[in-house]
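Bug #77: duplicate submission created two jobs. Keeping one. Sequence:
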Amino acid sequence: MRVVTIALCLVAMVRAVQLPSCESDTDEHCVGDGADLSPEGINTCLEGLGEKRSDRCNSFLAVNKACAADLKGDGACASAAMDGEGMVCLVQRVKPEQLSEECQSTLPKDELKGLQKFWKDGKRMLDINEIADLNADDKDV
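Kept job's structure:
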């Protein structure tokens, strides 16, 4: 039973959506002697990076812009945003239906793999081509 629980936890971690973030871009380009470390200064720096920005940071900026209403005022994640947990709230804590349509459209999608991909609508027998796409552990199931 314990092995099954550990295996299920590992599957959940593998399927977890990576949160959009500009942390590495900020550390690499926007921090240092004479840098403006205010939120506005860091945003200006990140916007000025253009093509140097990582895809993860581009996603972060797009989500922040599209979800601005959900992160302020009486939005679904306003209190979390004040605590620095706005992105976590948007991606993991709140049901997408509670967010604006514009915000929902920019959130990262969880890409299903293995058996979860084929069994998303319920368990069924897989055809030979689907079985070929599975890893060894999924084939054992």
